[in-house]
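Ticket closed. Logging final result for EGF-like domain-containing protein.
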Amino acid sequence: NNCENEYDACKDKPCLPGQECFDKTATEQGNSTIGYICGQCPDGYEERNNYCVDKNECFSNGTESESVCPKHSDCENNVGSYTCTCWPGYRLDPKNSSLCKDVDECAEKTHSCQQVCENTEGGFNCSCLPGNVLAEDKKTCQRDVKNAVLCSAKGCNQVCMVVDGVASCGCNTGYTNSSDTFCTDINECSLANKPCSQSCQNTDGGFLCSRYPGYKLDEDKVSCIGMY
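Final structure:
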């Protein structure tokens, strides 16, 4: 009689992944239609009314938790887990995965300042060389009109600086002085401290980073992360 054969109710994997399943004996099951018992809820789940439901790790006791994800990051709840994403201007510290570290855009040359860059927590500020003023876009610089005569006589091909009534030539970001008045492009890709973590292509006044197969370019446009 087939009714007398013991059936393993755990064979159909009725419990959640990572949750232990215990098959009931015929005596334990009795007239119940459920022939198994699931063990403790797996990580990422919590028990409610004898059921395992997804645990929202981003909230603790109904309030947003500051301990699950590092400071300067957002927490996104997933089924059975969660994802931490560092804010713009921050990056996960490769030496400490529980820390979102400030990105120094000025040192990494990923800023948009035409002349002078000052790093700030989570961002940067642009300013100008002496004798120049910041434009409305807060990135580019314009020559101060009161220095027009001095700068015209100096003949700088990029930036004219005026300090104490004396004019001298300077260069925009991504360039360096090749003579007293002329600036040439810096090949950032040939520097000892290359700005890109993988492939680097020099451009006029800047550079472009690209990835190797199997990686994707991170939001900072210089580092790469594995896709698999």
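The domain at 1-55 is CATH 2.10.25 (Laminin). No further action required.
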